[in-house]
Structure formats: structure tokens, C-alpha cells
Design a protein that fits this description.
The protein has helices spanning 35-46, 64-70, 88-100, 123-131, 153-169, 187-197, 209-217, 244-260; strands at 22-28, 51-58, 76-82, 108-111, 136-140, 183-186, 224-228. It is α/β, with parallel strands linked by helices. The protein has a single domain (4-258), classed as Spore Coat Polysaccharide Biosynthesis Protein SpsA, Chain A (Alpha-Beta Complex), CATH 3.90.550.10. The protein has a seven-stranded mixed sheet with strand order 3-2-1-4-6-5-7, sandwiched between helices. Helix 2 links the parallel strand 2 and strand 3 (76-82). Bound molecules: guanosine-5'-diphosphate and magnesium ion (MG). Guanosine-5'-diphosphate is lined by residues 27-29, 31, 56, 58, 85, 87-88, 91, 113-115, 117, 181, 240-242.
Length: 268
């Protein structure tokens, strides 16, 4: 990985984007309670920059699809729909694929949770980081200014342990938050990655897909930036969809597989 260059950190006073569209992918499974508020917040952002929201409804059994179709005034909302629940990994992949069919070189693709615990105002910090030279910008709970104190203790432990493990074992010292579901990618980077891996870019069905994507993208030698994330887990309605034991198993398998798999033979 290349060393991060001088990267902007954005924040409240950050300037609006000058070129390109910000595509916001929201993998959503039964999020009818949280989506309206989140779409409202994204609409506020859309007043300042060109934003397209992509809700990936993953076979929800509640009113997620209807809420997404109703949208929010002032922001374009597109829907990608799975007829049945295929899991977070497939949802992220379908969302990225759909965006890449229309995205242009200067566009930025953000993936964030649909549960309204991620503040959309951070999107401007992410796009600023990308415009300043990063290929991936991560909203990180584990850099100065970040905070995860509103999350349950066992979840905090899981994310922290995963971060320590992946950082040490994979020697990826520039990344502090491997499991954050809130990141931005330069569209060109994802086009290149899909060109190499195709649908094998994301094989994990569950929450480990976020780590898997990062591990594969590192072979593209991306510049990576992190911006502080204050997780607003107290805004979460209902239970987390993360299955703790299953996710720990997925992380460990991913780690072993990554260690055993040789780096891609041809340049990515
Ligand atoms: N598409 C899809 N999204 C899912 C699935 N499970 C969870 N999600 C979404 O993934 C995101 C992360 O899940 P969430 O419950 O917020 O996890 P937590 O915030 O880490 O506790 C949310 O936007 C969920 O709606 C799934 O099976 N399919
Ligand atoms: Mg969440």
C-alpha cells in the first residue's frame, strides 16, 4: 500500500464537492423504522452536492421497499431489490455493481449502514479525502475523535479485537478500523477490482464482507485515509442483525484464508 498523502479531513466546514456524483449505497434488511430519518438526512446533504442514494433491499419482510420507494424530497433514491434475503455481502456487491454501471471516473461510492447510526454529514469528509488523493476513506471509530461508546460492550470488544488482529497479523498498520461499515471508494478503484475478481470480489455472505473487501482491495495498492466516526448506536431501533458467534467464525476463517492465499499473480 502506498503511504497516505496529505489528506483533508473535511468536517462541518468542509467545502462542497466540485465534480462527480456521490453515490450512497445502503444495504437494508428490515429497516423500515430507520430509513425515513436517514433519507431525510441524506436529502439535506443533497442540497450541497450531487447525491444519488441506492437502497439495496435484501428481501426485507417489512415495509423497507415501500419506504425506499417513497424516498425523500430533494434526493434521488434508486432501488436494487433482491427477491429474497441473500445476506449483507451479496447486498453490498449488488449495490456496487449497480452503481458502477452508471458511475463516472470522478464519482465516489459510499457504503453505509441503513440503520441511521452513521451520520451522513461525514460523507463530505469522506469525499474530501478521496478528492485529496485517497482511493479508500474509512469512517473509523478508533482514531482520535472517533467514538463507539454508544455500542454494546460485546460489540465494541468484537470490533476492537478484529482491528488488533487484522492490523498485527496482516501488517496493515495504516488501518485502524477494519470492520466499519461506513466507507467511501474511488469508483475507478472498484471498477479495477471487479475487473480482476468479478463476482469473487465479495464472497463472504455475512458481516465479514467489509473486511474481505478491504483485504482484496489492498492488492490494488490504494491510498487509504481514515476520518473519525462517532457511532450513534443509541439511534438504533431494534436489534442488530449481526450474529456474534457466526461473525467471529467468519473473521477467523477470513484471516486464515488470507494468509494461505498467495497475492494475485498479475497486477490488479
Ligand atoms: N442487505 C442486507 N443488509 C443487511 C443484512 N443484515 C444486515 N444488513 C444491513 O447491514 C447494515 C448493518 O447491520 P446492522 O444491524 O446495522 O449492524 P450493526 O450496526 O453493526 O449492529 C444495516 O444497514 C442492515 O440493514 C442482510 O442480510 N442483508
Ligand atoms: Mg449498523
Amino acid at each position: 500500500m502506498r503511504a497516505p498523502s496529505e489528506l483533508g479531513t473535511g468536517g462541518e466546514g468542509a467545502r462542497a464537492r466540485t465534480g462527480g456524483v456521490t453515490h450512497v449505497v445502503l444495504p437494508a434488511f428490515n429497516e423500515e423504522g430507520s430509513l425515513p430519518a436517514l433519507l431525510g438526512r441524506l436529502a439535506a446533504l443533497a442540497r450541497a452536492e450531487r447525491v444519488v442514494v441506492w437502497v439495496v433491499d435484501d428481501g426485507s419482510t417489512d415495509g423497507t421497499l415501500e419506504v425506499a420507494a417513497a424516498g425523500a424530497p430533494g434526493v434521488e433514491v434508486k432501488i436494487v431489490s433482491h427477491g429474497r434475503n441473500l445476506g449483507l455481502g451479496r447486498a453490498v456487491q449488488s449495490g456496487l455493481r449497480a452503481v458502477l454501471e452508471v458511475a463516472e471516473k470522478l464519482d465516489v461510492i459510499v457504503v453505509m449502514d441503513a440503520d441511521d447510526t452513521h451520520d451522513p454529514r461525514l460523507i463530505r469528509s469522506l469525499t474530501e479525502a478521496i478528492e485529496s488523493g485517497a482511493d479508500i476513506a474509512i469512517c473509523s471509530r478508533f482514531v482520535p475523535g472517533g467514538d463507539d461508546s454508544t455500542a454494546p460492550a460485546f460489540r465494541r470488544m468484537l470490533s476492537r479485537s478484529a482491528a488488533v488482529l487484522f492490523r498485527k497479523i496482516l501488517r496493515l498498520s495504516e488501518i485502524h478500523d477494519f470492520t466499519s461499515g461506513y466507507r467511501a471508494y474511488r469508483s475507478e478503484l472498484l471498477t479495477r477490482a471487479f475487473g480482476h475478481w468479478g463476482d469473487r470480489l465479495i464472497e463472504e455472505r455475512g458481516f465479514a464482507c467489509m473486511v474481505e473487501l478491504l483485504l482484496k482491495l489492498r492488492y490494488c495498492r490504494p491510498v487509504i485515509a481514515e476520518v473519525p466516526l462517532v457511532l450513534q448506536y443509541d439511534r438504533k431501533r431494534g436489534a442488530s442483525k449481526l450474529r456474534l458467534r457466526r461473525t467471529i467464525g467468519q473473521y477467523l476463517k477470513l484471516l486464515v484464508r488470507d494468509r494461505l492465499t498467495p497475492a494475485p499473480y498479475r497486477a490488479v
